[in-house]
Amino acid sequence: MLKKALKIVVADNESIIRMDVKEMLEDAGHEVVGEAIDGRHAVELTRKYHPDLVIMDIKMPQMDGITAARKISQEHLAPVLLLSAFSQPEIVERAKEAGVTGYLVKPVQEENLFPAMQIAMSRWQDMQGMEQELADLKDSLATRKTLDRAKGIIMAAHHLSEQEAYRRMQKYAMAKRIPLKRVAESIVRAAGGTV
User: Fold this and answer.
1) Nearest Cα to 81, choosing from 178, 157, 11?
2) In this structure, are strands 31-36 and 80-84 parallel, antiparallel, or unpaired?
3) What is the mean pLDDT of the chain?
4) Which residues of 76-102 are buried (b: 16+ CB within 10 A; e: fewer)?
5) How far is CA 92 from the centre of its chain?
6) In angstroms, rounded to a whole number, what is the distance separating the alpha carbons of residues 102 and 104?
C-alpha cells in the first residue's frame, strides 16, 4: 500500500469508470484533484494541479491517452498509469515509448489498482533520479572541458605545466572565494572563446 495520500488526476471518457476509480482512490485516502473526459483536458489538469499521479484511459476523444501521456512525460509533470481494455503488444509498446510508467487492463479492481500505482510511482522516481544523474554528468563534463581549455590557455600564455596552471587557477579561486568553474569560464571568455 502507498504510504502517503496522493493527489491524482483521473481521465476516462466513461463516467462510470471515472466514478469507480475515484471512489476506490478516495476510500483509500487519496485526493482526486481533477477529472477529465479526454486527453487534452487531462494534460491541462496535470499542468494546473501538478498531481502525484495521472490515471488515464487510452481510448478517449480529442486526444488519446497515449498522446496525452507523451506530453505529460515530456514535460516531466507526473507519472502516468494507463488504463485500457486492450493488452495487445503494439499498444503496450506505444505506451512504453510514450513514457508511461504503469499499465493496467480493465476492469479496474482495487487489488490490481494500488500495486500498479505503487509501481508507476516507483518507476517515475527512478526515471527522475536517472535524469538528474544525467544532467549532473553533463554539467560535470562541460565543467571539465572548460577547465581543460582554461589550463591550456594559461599554459600557453605563461609557459607552465598543466599542474602549475591548475594550481594557479585554484589559488585564484580560493583567494577570490569563487568557484573554480567560474575562474575557468572567465579565462576562456577573456581569451575570446565561448563557454
Assistant:
1) 11
2) unpaired
3) 90
4) ebbbbbbbbeeeeeebbebbeebbbbb
5) 20
6) 7
CA distance 24 to 32: 10
For every residue of the chain, DSSP letters joined together read --SS--EEEEE-S-HHHHHHHHHHHHHTT-EEEEEESSHHHHHHHHHHH--SEEEEESS-SSS-HHHHHHHHHHTT---EEEEES---HHHHHHHHHTT--EEEESSP-HHHHHHHHHHHHHHHHHHHHHHHHHHHHHHHHHHHHHHHHHHHHHHHHHT--HHHHHHHHHHHHHHHT--HHHHHHHHHHHTT---
Q: Which long-range contacts (CB under 8 A, 24 or more apart) does 92-96 make?
A: 94/66, 95/58, 95/66, 95/69
Interval 106-148: pLDDT, tens: 888 889 999 999 998 888 888 777 888 888 889 889 889 999 9
- C-alpha 54/C-alpha 83 separation (Å) is 10
Task: Give CA–CA dist 109/10, Å, rounded.
Answer: 15
> At which residue does the C-alpha cell 484533484 appear?
33
pTM for this one? Answer: 0.70
- Give the C-alpha separation, 151 to 132, whole Å: 28
